[in-house]
Write a sequence for this structure.
């Protein structure tokens, strides 16, 4: 009796990169080169492996060291993304929650991510699956856990960048306690002061475009703020604990690095099928998520080496099959 092939992490990662829209164990068993692996082998791999978020550092650290001479420098960007599971009523990690992409409440899993970026590099270094029913933690708890882990790994970020969801006093004070700098956008009703005990919403502050002003954030202390006005008429208020950051263009230059986590979230869904696993069990989903992030790191490593985008790398694979099909038509 022929020995069956076992599913390995590297094989599952490459399958996620190569496949276009079918990420099932059955599909992997059909395309596995030796034709000796059953879909049950994939199921066992997903269920028996116990990869932890901290295991990601083993793959991310060498990439950071290749970009930066040491672990200092670079930005740490936090944000979360919803992995929609509209038809998965029995998925153990799925729950009804708000999706920024859909601007509505959807059934799905939520992933809190910590991204290291510098220049053109997008390197995920940590993540947490938001599942309060399993661990009792909210998104801010996960954020603080990941910051503590980053500090233990001797990372020294230029700034910690976060949107208003993570801009609570608790989080800002935690970053400040590490003697790290942060930039966040404040909600328009956050209270600030120019004179002692005279507070106003930041939206009432007389703040000209292209200027930076020092104010007192209630419950925190002195911060530097600026206002960004968008073409469609929206306004965003940025804040930082770096009182030396007074140049408006420099301020926006640092904040622009936050967009890299949005690009990362889009790539997870469009290039490595992080939302494509149909398994119901929590352990299988956790393994798939870990493998998806590792697969992205492969794409990112190749992009940094060759300049080929994540999407072009994926397209090149499908072109081979298309060209062969047309040649034999």
């Amino acid at each position: 009796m022929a020995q069956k092939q076992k599913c390995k992490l590297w094989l599952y990662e490459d399958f996620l990169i190569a496949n276009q829209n079918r990420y099932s164990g059955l599909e992997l068993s059909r395309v596995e080169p030796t034709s000796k692996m059953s879909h049950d082998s994939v199921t066992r791999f997903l269920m028996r492996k116990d990869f932890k978020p901290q295991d990601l550092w083993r793959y991310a650290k060498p990439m950071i060291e290749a970009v930066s001479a040491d672990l200092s420098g670079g930005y740490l960007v936090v944000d979360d993304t919803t992995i929609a599971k509209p038809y998965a009523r029995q998925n153990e990690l799925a729950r009804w929650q708000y999706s920024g992409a859909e601007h509505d409440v959807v059934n799905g899993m939520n992933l809190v991510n910590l991204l290291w970026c510098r220049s053109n590099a997008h390197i995920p270094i940590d993540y947490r699956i938001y599942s309060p029913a399993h661990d009792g933690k909210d998104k801010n708890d996960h954020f603080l856990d990941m910051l503590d882990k980053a500090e233990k790994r001797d990372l020294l970020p230029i700034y910690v960048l976060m949107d208003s969801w993570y801009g609570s006093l608790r989080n800002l004070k935690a970053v400040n306690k590490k003697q790290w700098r942060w930039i966040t956008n404040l909600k328009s009703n956050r209270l600030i002061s120019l004179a002692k005990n005279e507070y106003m919403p930041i939206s009432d502050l007389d703040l000209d475009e292209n200027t930076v002003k020092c104010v007192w954030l209630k419950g925190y202390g002195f911060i530097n703020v600026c206002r960004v006005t968008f073409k469609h008429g929206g306004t965003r208020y940025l804040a930082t604990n770096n009182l030396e950051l007074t140049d408006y263009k420099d301020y926006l230059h640092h904040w622009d690095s936050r967009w890299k986590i949005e690009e990362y979230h889009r790539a997870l869904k469009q290039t490595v099928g992080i939302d494509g696993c149909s398994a119901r069990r929590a352990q299988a989903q956790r393994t798939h998520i870990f493998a998806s992030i590792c697969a992205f790191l492969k794409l990112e490593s190749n992009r940094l080496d060759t300049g080929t985008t994540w999407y072009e790398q994926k397209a090149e694979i499908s072109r081979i099959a298309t060209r062969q099909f047309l040649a034999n038509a």
